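Quick one before lunch.
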Amino acid sequence: MGKSVLLIIGGGIAAYKSLELIRLLKTRGIGVRAIMTKAAAEFVTPLSVASLSGEKVHSALFNLTDEVEMGHIELSRSADLVVVVPATADLMAKMAQGLANDLASTTALATDKPVLIAPAMNVRMWQHAATQRNLATLETDGIHVVGPNEGDMACGEFGPGRMAEPVEILAAIEVLLASAPKPLAGRKILITAGPTREPIDPVRYISNHSSGKQGYALAEAAVRMGADVTLVSGPVSLPKPFGVKIIDVQTADEMLAACEKSLPADGAIFAAAVADWKVAHSAANKIKKQKSGEVPTLTFVENPDILKTIATGKMRPQIVVGFAAETEKVIEHAKAKLEKKSCDLIIANDVSEGVFGTNRNTVHLVGKSGVEDWPQLSKAEVANRIMAHLAGLLK
Ligand code: C5P
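Model of the cytidine-5'-monophosphate complex:
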């Protein structure tokens, strides 16, 4: 039987995004029943929600017809997952306190299913001690939280409080609904992703074209397989994957420190494109333009090799996987890297044909016992297969 979610739509401007979420859920074959609070109906019409979900919309707690058709307790358990979108400050407060004075809060209290909330509110309301206290209580109670993001808000302010986008909420729902086997349950996995940024002065830096997409896809795949994932990420513009602990860093030195702090781990995958060099002495102030014809000279020093440091360190994870982005002699260079960096596996890819920033990748698995060539796949599928391979090695 197909999976289904019970959507509790709260009363906030972000309620309009619940319509897009319903549409996305339906395209995935996920059934949707919706409850709307009274305030929600001020922002989106029950008719829109009913039309998109193809189901009757529930709103009043004591509606005799509804109770005969499906009691509110039954409604709260009718789906595989309860999703509150948007979770307003008011709804979060009610849920944290266990209040049950309308259908939405009663259902959230009565359910025996996992609950996901997508908070959305003004930045001050989000940062208020009361909301943060309620958030902590809800997390302790085992409620899953997606977002909020930082950005422009409908009220004209900027900051955290903007509801996660429908695609991000969908991704979180898919993780929570996944009944796929969880071969990495109980395993701690460390992943690095993205470029590093090495400062020249306070306004300039040296970096590279890594988008972080492959590393982020690996983190998502690992979470789906049940792992406890820490992602050490250089500066990228990707949504934060659901259920992943992210440590944001800029430089290679910071990345190494964050990785060391994240040990012990059962497995580690180093997908970051770490800058090989940093400027020996980055200037404290912006370097001024010199006389015409004169240019500054930058002296570089080598950055730490994060992968090698961890792979040869005292707290080495059981399985260490590196990447090798090459433009020529791909396999040969990958084999050399396997030895030199003490890895168990190298994922080699030919980056001469525009891999950076795209959604596809052609990789070769170079291990101690041989080479496996994979066809061109999406980065998501490459990630699934790498994580399945890692799970096999960890057994
Ligand atoms: O030596 P090269 O940069 O080609 O090695 C690539 C692999 O080593 C990747 O897995 C990358 O994440 C890792 N690496 C690292 N620290 C560096 C350089 C590379 O972890 N300073």
